[in-house]
Amino acid sequence: MDCFINKGYEVVVVDNLSTGKRENINSKAKFYNVDIQNPLLEDVFDKERPDFVDHHAAQICVSKSIREPLFDAQVNILGSLNLIKCSKKYNVKKFIYASTGGAIYGEPNYLPCDETYPVEALSPYGVSKHTVEHYLYLYYINYDLDYKVLRYSNIYGPRQDPYGEAGVIAIFAERMLKNDKVIINGDGNQERDFLYVSDVVKANLLSIEDFSHLPVRTKKISKEKKFGDFIYNLGTGKGISVNRIFMMLKEITHYKLDPLYVPPKTGEVYKISLNAEKARRELGWEPTVYSSEGLKKTVKWFKKASLKFNNQL
Ligand SMILES: NC(=O)c1ccc[n+]([C@@H]2O[C@H](COP(=O)([O-])OP(=O)(O)OC[C@H]3O[C@@H](n4cnc5c(N)ncnc54)[C@H](O)[C@@H]3O)[C@@H](O)[C@H]2O)c1
Predict the structure, then answer these.
(1) H-only helix segments in 149-290
(2) Is the CB of 155 under 6 A from ligand 1?
(3) Which of 60, 101, 184, 242 lies most in the core, judged by the most C-beta atoms within 10 Å?
(4) Ligand 1 in contact with 100 (CB < 6 A)?
């Protein structure tokens, strides 16, 4: 949102603030507190007539999706479909969809995993996020809705919610700074491909700018495009273990305690990293922030945020 505003776009944010926070919304953005499942979403489209939709609203927690698969499907599938339907009706130029690469490939037999690897999701979250990719392809085939799917690895950085069940770096950083016990699910050797948030922002910008010079509906869409042509993995290509992340954060925060190991969570993959060669080739995207630097920036932000919070008490 901030980078689009800085680039001169007029930004409208739709969010039901279920996990999002009002203070994170740029004051230059217009804000609607609307659930994406609500039929009122259409009124927002009617009023604002967006050129682009950059869809991030979701239920993001793998374990919640296992506990509440209906809720997960309602938000992630039906909510997204409502958004796609409105985008078609109001002639959106391009739809960007934040999908997941971390939760749909299952346990791949090679790493880093590329976009051609079969979808073998191990959780309702992986299934719901992937399902929307199919709806988008249908809307492209049937109604010319152009789009891109960005399959994110594990994203981290400032503003991530440290109180949810997802977002291991935010959770660890917050707990270490408060000197609270850090819990590791499983043996800690599970690997994730951690990508700093500014690199993801850049990919979203590149995906939109790809088209922004064209007026609405003048782009002739080639129907020869296949489902996979719209999909881009975003990741560093390298897995880092949760134990390693713990140690790196421990050093940055000067934390003294050992972690508490508890059984692994159902539905979580063991090792995943994403091959983003296609994004590099076709979008001109590449990750620029190394984990050592990204972790320092994240801790710095969490420190500042907790100081601000304490001063407000
Ligand atoms: N963070 C990651 O590592 C990661 C990895 C892969 C994919 N993704 C995807 O990226 C997107 C953003 O994830 P995030 O980590 O920033 O999560 P987040 O929870 O911080 O952001 C999701 C936002 O969606 C809003 N929201 C949830 N349900 C809504 C609804 N029904 N109507 C309107 N708004 C709703 C929340 O209030 C929140 O602001 C999600 O689509 C997620 O699936 C994230």
Answers:
(1) 168-177, 197-209, 242-253, 277-283
(2) yes
(3) 101
(4) yes
Confidence of residue 219 (pLDDT cuts 50, 70, 90): low
pLDDT in tens, 113-150: 999 999 999 999 999 999 999 999 999 999 999 999 99
**DSSP-assigned states of every residue in 159-200:** T--TTSSS-HHHHHHHHHHTTPPPEEETTS--EE-EEEHHHH
C-alpha triplet 98, 100, 106: angle, nearest 5°: 165
Q: Is 131 in the pocket of ligand 1 (CB under 6 A)?
A: no
Residue 131: its H or E element: helix 124-143
- Note if the pTM is more than 0.90: yes
Q: What is the pLDDT of residue 58?
A: 98
Is 125 a catalytic site residue? yes
How close is the Cα of 76 to the center of ligand 1, in Å?
10
Establish whether residue 129 lines the binding site of ligand 1, counting it when its CB lies within 6 angstroms of any ligand atom: yes
Residue with tokens 């709806």: 135
Give SS3 for 148: strand
Helix or strand holding residue 310 (H, E): helix 291-312
> Which of 125, 135, 137, 255 is flagged as catalytic?
125
Bridge pairing between strands 194-196 and 154-156: parallel
All domains of the chain in start order, with CATH: 2-312 (3.40.50.720)
Report whether 280 contacts 243 (CB < 8 A).
no
Residue 68 token pair: 């509440």
CA distances to 144, 168, 274, 278, 292 from 220, in Å: 9, 43, 31, 23, 44
Contact present, 165 and 63 (Cβ < 8 Å): yes
Phi and psi (nearest 5°) for 24?
Answer: -85, -5
Which residue, 31, 23, 29, is CA-closest to 9? 29
Output the average pLDDT for the chain.
Answer: 94
User: What is the identity of the amino acid at 72?
Assistant: D
